[in-house]
Amino acid sequence: MRTAAFLYPWDVVGDPAAAGRLAGLGIQQVTLASAYHSTRALTPRHPRHRIVTARHSAVLYPPDPARWAGRALRPATQDWTAGPDPFGAAARALADAGLEVHTWVVLAHNSRLGAEHPAAVVRNAYGDPYPWAPCIARPEVREYLVDLAAEAAVRPGAQGTELESCGWYGLAHLHAHDKTGGVPLTGAAQYLMSVCFCTVCAAGYARLGVPAQEVRAAVVRALEPQWSAGPEGLEGPGDREGERAAVEELLGAELAGLLRSWRDGAARTLQRAAVRAVRDAAADRFRVLLHADPAAHRCGANVGVDVADVLAHADGAVLPCTGDAAARADVLGPFADRRTGVADRPAGGADCRAGAAAAAGASVTAGASVTARASASTIAANFTVVSGLGGSPGTLAADAAHAASLGATELRLYHAGLASDRDLVAVGDALREIGDNSGKRTAC
Asked: Nearest-5° angle of CA 337, CA 341, CA 342?
């Protein structure tokens, strides 16, 4: 089963042993950050440092001055990793070790952009801005994100890309000294707190037939019980269908449908434009995956998507699979069902599914049918393998086998640079076990 690990350039730059160590795990690919948000990251094996503080969102390569000249929204550069092109330096070292490099591009998650351009961000029903969340319905934001996707994805040495946050970001956000957990919110409330009322979104609601002030008032009314009930009176987040049903119950079908129409349309058109821009920028065949969630109302790094639409225009999706078996089934099922919807799913596991997909048309041309592209799509199950971040590297082989039985075709490991030595040993053992089991499979 093809496996890729996520990595930052600073995990490799300045550490001559890093690339070989990663290749020794048994992975085939590294998904290497080229545009990333602010973070404070541990580097447990680096010979020169232990903590890297990326103070703001930035590109990790030299941006093209001609592309961004005279534009208000533009990517910031970094100074926390040595050299003019940390991505390029890391990519060359990884390729020399025999690893395929794909870019990891974070789009609509950018606190620096929000701080410098407050009019460009999501504003909730109470008027509070979310500086970390550029509003993807705004024309200037969409233009910036599409151009950033093309530039940051198609870097020298990269053979594909994975686009994170290519859609709506919302309330949920890892923030310094966060104090927002005093009243736990249901999944429906998280969504309502993420609905945007910037000037562009407000005008959009009006064009769809309901004045923005009516939509805002309805959202505020629906949220009021959340603030008064207290933690004891609140249920935890439900499943994806339960969250959607709760939103409709709270707002009514008409308003819930209006919000869904506006937000889903903005997300779909952004995703299509970003994928098209990446393809146009890449001279050769270039694989484009989206970090995604099958529930279109969800926000964040794994953006809510229309499953059929994503599989029709992108090469597949990277899906969050850390958790129990039921959680994996909930996230993988809709993608696997769509991918195999044109025929019965072949028996024999991921390798057989990959062969059937190739027979069904894995090399998809621009004029190919939606079903042919969907049947050839990559479904990558993303597992956290850092114990300290809630991952379970010790059960990776079993979890991966379960994901494959649900339709996953590849694995993603988050995050090879953050993991302890013990975690990486467990990952290597698991990948060897997966490879041994794959070799024992009978032919399809």
From this structure: 160
Residue 254, CB-side half-sphere exposure with 13 Å CA sphere: 8
- What is the DSSP pairing of strand 58-59 with strand 100-106? unpaired
- Of 134, 137, 88, 129, which Cα lies nearest the Cα of 107? 134
| 152 within 8 A of 77, measured Cβ to Cβ | no
For 33, other C-beta atoms within 10 Å of its C-beta total 28
For 93, the token pair is 């070292």
**Can you give the pTM of this predicted structure?**
0.91
What does the alpha-carbon distance between residue 221 and residue 242 come to, in Å, rounded to a whole number? 20
- In angstroms, the CA 191 to CA 171 distance is 8
Mean pLDDT in order along the chain per 10 residues (444 residues): 97 98 97 97 97 98 98 98 97 98 98 97 98 98 98 97 98 80 88 98 98 98 86 56 94 98 98 98 93 97 97 97 95 90 36 31 37 78 97 98 97 98 98 83 38
Q: What angle do CA 391, 394, 398 make, to 5 degrees?
A: 100
Helix (H/G/I), strand (E/B), else coil: 153:
helix
52 close to 40: Cβ distance less than 8 angstroms: yes
Distance of alpha carbon 110 from alpha carbon 133, whole angstroms: 6
Among 409, 415, 410, which Cα is nearest to 391's? Answer: 415
What number of CA atoms fall less than 13 Å from residue 95's CA on the CB side? 13
Tell me the CA end-to-end span of the chain in Å, nearest whole number.
15
Helical segments of 162-304, H only: 187-192, 199-207, 212-229, 240-251, 253-281
| Residue showing tokens 């999944």 | 187
Record the tokens describing residue 206, joined without a space.
């009006």
Which pairing describes strands 2-7 and 29-36: parallel, antiparallel, or unpaired?
Answer: parallel
Distance from C-alpha of 130 to C-alpha of 201, rounded to nearest angstrom: 14
